[in-house]
Design the sequence.
């Protein structure tokens, strides 16, 4: 599979600029995909992360431009709001025992709608700009939107999130519990794993990642758009699956998800650079996703059958 | 008919326990005693009350009447985890293992040894692997690499992992519910060997099975249930394998007491 990418995206890597373009494009999705993969390994989905990006970005902009907050407190509040949404998602899933697919599909609509309604109601617009006027913008730009040569600092955030995610999954008790929760919640519970806490914690984590992406993008583009983050929930799931995470839970990889996001960047930039019509981007991704899912399922069946 | 065989005080016993579900008596005045270093085999057809008795002994539900005693003192287990914390571990048919996770991760699940503090607190992976391997070797199962997923183990090896895990967590009473049911002859022999070792190590074992051929070689005492009542309760010297087989085949024999 990588050979195919190399053939398509090869030109993208002939220069540092090309490589940077690929990584820059993949970074926000990579941050999301790592946390979404952890949640999927625990057997749950979060379809609200895209909406949370839009909502969190807009919340930060409203705090700054409409309520006159300095930027840093607004960043803090944005992350707290995101975590709160994750807490609500997790609590609803654990309490109602409804599939997280449905619960977070509900949040997807709720928060996209709220984003548009609040921004239009308070400011009359769905796009708010001029974040660069805010107090503290220069410092925030260094942390969230600096350029390191051709590379955006978001690439570092992506690497950091991937490294921490991989470490948690393979080296901590929480990681063991995440795998067990998705493998069999009943067996995990019997062994003493706090299954509900694991799930709620992961919903908070995915929402926090969405909040971080929202802050990064708002600072870079000096503004928020109510539609930002659309479809990112599905791209994050796709990246996780391409990276080897099972849709059925119980097995997966944080680093794989980070690489899955890289595939998105590769294909996107590769097609741009080779001049292939961008419409084919989605077609190709869809096929890759199906192939990856089939492959994962094969591996899982072989694993379970080799008794 | 007495529930007590040898002289030693039972670790875990049920005295005259009854349980009704709706109007149906699942258990009716049943007594059973488990002693350290002894294997009690609980026999009976489906619906005879075996599972109900196991659930009462392992804290799934309390009896309607009668008492459960741990080390001679009356006890009410709040849950299976409560029972496990007090040394009474149920090793279930499905084994409660995660097939996609490695042997050592399964072995330690929920009780992982850690190093470091705060945000850097992490599993002591080398120690966890080493001790899991050693504990399994102690159960007579040599797994070449504890990083292998449980899915790759034989049925007998999985049972060994589950038993070793329970013993490692301080279980003094092992309740094994049909551990040989889904296994072939060779794998069943592996499991019986596990039971023998656990017993030698001082555990009190309750082996629930409907196969007298599996119970006979390892059992010190045989208790058979029929329609919620005790039909037979004999030490090994007081009953023959043929008798057990006959009972399980559903034929009643005249020597019944």
Sequence:
């Amino acid at each position: 599979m990588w050979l195919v990418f190399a053939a398509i995206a090869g030109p993208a890597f002939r220069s540092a600029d090309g490589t940077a373009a690929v990584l820059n494009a993949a970074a926000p999705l990579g941050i999301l995909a790592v946390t979404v993969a952890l949640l999927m390994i625990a057997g749950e989905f979060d379809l609200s992360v895209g909406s949370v990006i839009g909502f969190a970005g807009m919340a930060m902009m409203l705090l700054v431009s409409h309520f006159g907050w300095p930027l840093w407190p607004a960043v803090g509040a944005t992350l707290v709001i995101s975590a709160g949404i994750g807490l609500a998602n997790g609590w609803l899933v654990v309490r109602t025992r409804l599939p997280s697919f449905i619960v977070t599909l509900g949040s997807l609509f709720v928060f996209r709608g709220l984003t548009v309604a609040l921004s239009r109601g308070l400011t009359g617009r769905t796009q708010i700009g001029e974040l660069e006027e805010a107090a503290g913008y220069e410092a925030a730009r260094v942390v969230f939107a600096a350029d390191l040569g051709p590379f955006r600092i978001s690439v570092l955030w992506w690497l950091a999130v991937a490294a921490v995610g991989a470490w948690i999954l393979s080296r901590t008790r929480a990681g063991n519990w995440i795998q067990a929760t998705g493998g069999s919640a009943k067996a995990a519970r019997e062994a003493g794993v706090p299954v509900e806490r694991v799930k709620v914690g992961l919903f908070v984590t995915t929402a926090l990642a969405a909040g971080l992406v929202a802050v990064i993008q708002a600072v870079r583009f000096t503004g928020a758009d109510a539609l930002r983050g659309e479809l990112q929930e599905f791209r994050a799931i796709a990246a996780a699956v391409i990276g080897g995470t099972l849709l059925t839970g119980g097995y997966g990889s944080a680093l794989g998800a980070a690489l899955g996001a890289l595939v998105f960047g590769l294909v996107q930039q590769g097609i741009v650079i080779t001049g292939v019509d961008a419409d084919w981007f989605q077609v190709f991704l869809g096929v890759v996703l199906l192939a990856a899912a089939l492959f994962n399922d094969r591996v899982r069946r072989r694993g379970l059958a080799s008794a | 008919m007495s529930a007590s065989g040898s002289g030693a005080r039972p670790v875990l016993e049920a005295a005259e326990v009854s349980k009704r579900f709706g109007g149906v008596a699942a258990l009716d005045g049943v007594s059973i005693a488990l002693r350290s270093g002894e294997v009690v085999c609980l026999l009976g057809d489906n619906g005879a009350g075996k599972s109900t008795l196991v659930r009462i002994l392992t804290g799934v539900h309390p009896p309607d009447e009668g008492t459960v005693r741990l080390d001679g003192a009356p006890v009410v287990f709040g849950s299976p985890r409560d029972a496990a914390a007090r040394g009474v571990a149920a090793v279930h048919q499905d084994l409660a293992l995660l097939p996609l996770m490695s042997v050592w991760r399964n072995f330690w699940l929920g009780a992982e040894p850690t190093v470091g503090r705060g945000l850097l607190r992490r599993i002591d992976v080398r120690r966890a692997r080493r001790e899991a391997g050693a504990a399994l070797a102690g159960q007579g199962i040599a797994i070449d690499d504890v990083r292998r997923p449980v899915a790759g183990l034989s049925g007998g090896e999985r049972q060994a992992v589950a038993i070793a895990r329970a013993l490692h967590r301080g279980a003094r009473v092992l309740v094994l519910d049909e551990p040989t049911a889904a296994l072939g002859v060779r794998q069943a022999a592996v499991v019986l060997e596990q039971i023998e070792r656990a017993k030698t190590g001082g555990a009190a074992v309750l082996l629930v099975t409907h196969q007298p051929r599996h119970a006979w070689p390892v059992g010190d005492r045989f208790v058979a249930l029929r329609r919620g009542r005790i039909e037979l309760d004999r030490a090994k010297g007081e009953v023959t394998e043929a008798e057990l087989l006959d009972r399980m085949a559903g034929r009643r024999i005249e020597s019944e007491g």
